Amino acid sequence: MNKNFTKKSYFLNFDRYLIFKKQLVTLLAKIPHIAITCDLKKNSQTGYFLAITGHFFDKEMSYRSILLSFKSFNKRHFAKNIKAFLVRELTKLKIENK
Question: Which of 18, 21, 68, 98 has the fewest CB atoms found within 10 Å of its own CB?
Answer without folding.
Answer: 18
